[in-house]
Write a structure and sequence with these properties.
Blueprint lengths: L9 H16 L2 H4 L12 E5 L4 H9 L6 E6 L7 H7 L4 E3 L2 H7 L5 E4 L3 H12 L4 E5 L6 H14 L3 E4 L8 H9 L6 E7 L25 H5 L25 H10 L1 H6 L7 E6 L20 E7 L9 E7 L24 E6 L2 E5 L10 E4 L4 E3 L13 H11 L4 H4 L5 H21 L15 E4 L4 E2 L20
Parallel strand pairs: 1-2, 1-4, 2-3, 4-5, 5-6, 7-10
Antiparallel strand pairs: 7-11, 8-9, 8-15, 9-10, 11-12, 12-13, 13-14, 15-16
Length: 482
């Protein structure tokens, strides 16, 4: 009997044959722990922001050295980014992502892990040059940027992913299953809270002092789209989160982790309205602590959504930070944490039949718990097995980049811009409400009427307070426009 013909091309035979023979001849430590990978099968990745979260993003995207890291960009290589340089000694170094992307033509994809205000300018510059992008959360600094990047990704046909790695946690499927099976019945309310901010907030911006600028820091490039000004201490590398020029406050830090859970599982879309209040002293214009350029030390926000096929009811979502927590649901035992450890961060999805309590961020694993009014419960596992860092969130993006736009791998990403864009807009809607709450008339110094803001999501417009629409976008410095 003749053997069956195998569908194999000469090219495939040569490729696999060389790989097989190489594994036998070349030592494993030369080939890498996962075996030989043809250079043509490797992705050329660059990092924009190489320290802090950027260090783990580019490291995880390299999949333990399986992909090539060909360039690193950072405005300060003297800090934690120096360790990334040591890890990828062959990568070329830049302090300006624009020069990197224009000069180094072999880059296929970039990770972007900068302060929030640089996310969109860097991502725009990369996508317009056909580069796939992985952008840390929040995807953008304002709502208009999120809409532009979402549409640009489709137009440029590039593969995208936002860095809310919890979205790739398989235990989210358990929450989705409970909701899809109607365990909670009609769902009308979601409560979300966090212990953030853990950085200076509600205070005046420090005065510029160029004598304190680190020699290695390129301050002008750090400012990016923000207004040019002399070096300001205590911004780089972390405390920028507390000022609107650069950061997005507590919502921007963890909103894309926590709000993601109900947004994803309930199939939410653009909100229809939002209102808020902030720390009482901070909100009073006659107080010496009134600093509208700073994110508040605490806030309470209500965002309203229309009913979805999964919620069966309109949704009222509340967000609180700065130590404000929701009351403990009676259906959950009084001695139990709600949300995460010590109830510091969490999500409650509340329906007519019970409550889902859960949480997700960098430090606490997702532990979904279902409490029903009839006394029955269902819990997810207490300890998660981390097969690979951050649930393979970066690796899945790399695999999708190699498979191509609209490939099966791309369509299965949990936070491509098609999803992450609208979700980020919802997160930033909370910030729009905060900033509008602190608006006052320039002439009279009186606050505008503090009322519920009505949102036209399709047209990105507040319909009942025109002054609030200034926060849908921002002014950009030349060379960093979006």
């Amino acid at each position: 009997m003749k053997p069956k013909k195998q569908k194999s091309s000469r090219r495939r035979f040569i490729k696999t044959g060389i790989a097989a023979s190489s594994i036998m001849i070349v030592p494993r430590n030369v080939l890498g722990g996962n075996g030989y990978i043809s250079p043509s099968d490797q992705l050329n990745i660059a990092a924009i922001g190489s320290g802090g979260k950027g260090a783990s993003d580019i490291s995880n995207a390299s999949v333990r050295g399986r992909e090539r890291v060909v360039a690193l960009c950072d405005v300060d290589f003297s800090g934690s980014a120096s360790n990334t340089v040591k890890k990828f000694p062959k990568a070329k170094l830049y302090d300006d992502y624009r020069k990197m992307l224009d000069k180094q033509k072999n880059i296929d994809a970039v990770t972007i892990s900068t302060p929030d205000h640089v996310h969109a300018p860097a991502a725009t510059y990369a996508m317009l040059r056909g580069k796939h992008v992985y952008v840390q959360k929040p995807m953008t600094h304002n709502i208009r940027e999120a809409r532009i990047l979402t549409e640009m990704a489709r137009e440029q046909k590039v593969v995208t992913q936002m860095g809310n790695q919890g979205g790739s946690n398989p235990l989210l499927n358990m929450i989705q299953d409970w909701i899809d099976k109607g365990k909670l019945g009609a769902i009308s309310e979601v409560k979300i809270w966090t212990n953030r901010p853990v950085w200076p907030s509600g205070i005046s911006m420090p005065k510029p002092d160029i004598s304190k600028k680190p020699n290695a820091l390129n301050w002008d490039l750090w400012l990016g789209p923000a207004k040019s000004k002399p070096y300001t201490p205590n911004m780089h590398p972390f405390n920028w989160r507390g000022w609107w020029d650069y950061g997005t406050g507590a919502l921007g830090d963890v909103g894309c982790h926590l709000i993601d859970i109900p947004f994803r599982t309930l199939g939410l879309k653009y909100p229809k309205a939002a209102e808020c209040s902030v720390g009482s002293v901070f909100s009073q214009m006659w107080s010496p602590d009134f600093n509208p350029e700073s994110c508040p030390p605490s806030s309470f926000i209500t965002i309203n959504f229309d009913a979805t096929s999964k919620s069966k009811s309109p949704i009222k979502m509340t967000w609180s930070d700065g130590g404000i927590r929701p009351s403990h649901p009676s259906v959950i035992p009084a001695n139990s944490d709600i949300g995460g450890k010590n109830s510091d961060n969490g999500v409650l999805i509340i329906g007519e039949k019970g409550v889902i309590s859960t949480n997700i961020n960098d430090s606490e694993p997702l532990m979904p718990k279902l409490y029903l009014n009839d006394g029955s419960t269902d819990f997810g596992p207490e300890v998660e097995k981390m097969i690979e860092p951050e649930y393979g969130h970066q690796r899945k993006w790399v695999d999708a980049c190699k498979a191509g736009f609209k490939s099966k791998e791309h369509l299965s990403l949990t936070s491509s811009f098609d999803y992450a864009g609208p979700m980020t807009e919802t997160v930033l809607m909370g910030n729009l409400a905060i900033r509008s709450y602190m608006l006052r008339d320039k002439k009279t110094k009186e606050f505008f009427a503090r009322k519920k803001l009505l949102w036209d999501g399709d047209n990105m417009k507040i319909t009942n307070l025109e002054a609030a629409n200034q926060f849908v976008t921002r002014e950009y410095r030349q060379g960093f426009e979006v």
